[in-house]
Amino acid sequence: MANYTITITAAEEIALKPVMSNKQTWLENAIQERARISGDSIIADLLLSTGNLLLIKLISLVIFSENKLLVSIIYQSLQKLYLGYQLLLQRPKAYGL
Known about the structure:
Elements: H1 10-16, H2 23-50, H3 53-64, H4 68-90
Helix pairs in contact: 2-3, 3-4
């Protein structure tokens, strides 16, 4: 998990006080929501480019999971799938394509 430190001016702190009763919670929510939006965008782009819904579901598990073992297993599986796909592209006649 990453940690970030930010610095704001006194004026910015005063301006944010009315909307940020708990600064830590507000910042965590803002960053997590932005990460969710980015993850959704990545998934949508992949779905448009590949059309492979199963692959997209696996990738979304990797993006949103905090379980490191699960992420590692899925990532390794995706690498194998990608390598197999690359082989298919290199030898289409051997596979009857």
